[in-house]
């Protein structure tokens, strides 16, 4: 049954005293997995409130490396099991943890991690929380200045405060009258933002209407860590970067009914100078062309009547009518018992928490189907399929039925 442990390296075990999580009982919250030449040692102190640490033993050089760790680091726990998936991420099962906090992915060679390694010139790993199904895709809203993006987003956040969270961008533009630092934007300076971009702190950034705007990795993570679906209000260049990234967002472009109406809305807002209005209207022509024809966007919405447009937005997000209630209450966590062992077969991770006697009589296996994983750092890893079953069969396909 299952796969052989990903690794058991005696000298490593002697050096740092961890045990592999595969089917074994162990004291500390430490485990290790080897991918290629690198052994990832993951763990902290038993029952500690400190975050789980990650160290890498590079067999090629014989050196230990402490990587930059992105993503929200899980706290230590009663124990960890680790399994390498596709050599680019390690699935971690936290024993005895809360249902919404027990399946994690440590990305070691995904697109996002490779990009970050390139920018930072050092070892990088990134945590991403695992969630069931296809929920929580981030939502990108783009469109010309004054079309109503902010208005639509405010309506969504007001109606579904526990479902959506706004990604607070950084910008070098000056705050408008009512805007608060850290709420509407992180207002910053050009030189500081350029340094942070160089340090790899941004998912995307662009120069828009003469100012620098960008989405930090942290801005997305703060929202996903709160268990909410992330909304990004970004321009077309930023949308293009997100489309190419691992975020797997739904991209929506909002159009005005006419350029005249766009100008009316922009002027009636009274937040820009005449020069800024003219600049934004000029840019709007280009944005409209790109938005409608570039193939970046999944959906185009026309914001003529505000209420109609808002209803269309909810519909394409699957949160209109009864669907809204279902989605809000859908459980995202996975209830795992404290004491269990973990093994892997093809694209299925089998979590066994029964005694041999118990196995015969009741459900004692949880199967995590990881064949359709999507997303990942800096967002969540979606697409986990989870179901309970009662026994192994010779052919694992035999337990492929959700129960
Ligand atoms: N690429 C990118 N664009 C952003 C970001 N934040 C805001 N923007 C875009 O910058 C443009 C100007 O935003 P803002 O100054 O708030 O003006 P408004 O859209 O007219 O309210 C809009 O197209 C926003 O969608 C960001 O983090 N990244
Ligand atoms: N469908 C609409 N009809 C009329 N006015 C609208 C509509 N949608 C938004 N507005 C108004 O247009 C102005 C610009 O909207 P805003 O949300 O700030 O645009 P954006 O965030 O795209 O720059 C605001 O004063 C807003 O109240």
From TrEMBL:
Q: Which domain of life is it from?
A: Eukaryota
Taking every annotated instance into account, which residue ranges of this chain make up the domain Guanylate kinase-like? 136-318
Zinc-finger keyword on record: no
The EC number on file is 2.7.4.8
Q: Which UniProt keywords apply?
A: ATP-binding, Kinase, Nucleotide-binding, Transferase
One GO CC annotation: cytosol
SMART domains assigned to the protein according to its UniProt record, in alphabetical order? GuKc
Q: Which reaction does it catalyse?
A: GMP + ATP = GDP + ADP
What single Pfam family name could you report for this chain, choosing any that match?
Answer: Guanylate_kin
Molecular function (GO) terms for this protein are: ATP binding; GMP kinase activity
The record's InterPro entries line, in alphabetical order, gives:
Gal_Oxase/kelch_b-propeller, GK/Ca_channel_bsu, Guanylate_kin-like_dom, Guanylate_kinase, Guanylate_kinase_CS, Kelch-typ_b-propeller, P-loop_NTPase
Asked whether the UniProt record includes Nucleotide-binding among its keywords, one would answer yes
The UniProt similarity line reads:
Belongs to the guanylate kinase family.
Q: Which PANTHER family does the protein's record reference?
A: GUANYLATE KINASE (PTHR23117:SF13), GUANYLATE KINASE-RELATED (PTHR23117)
Protein name as it appears in the record: Guanylate kinase 1
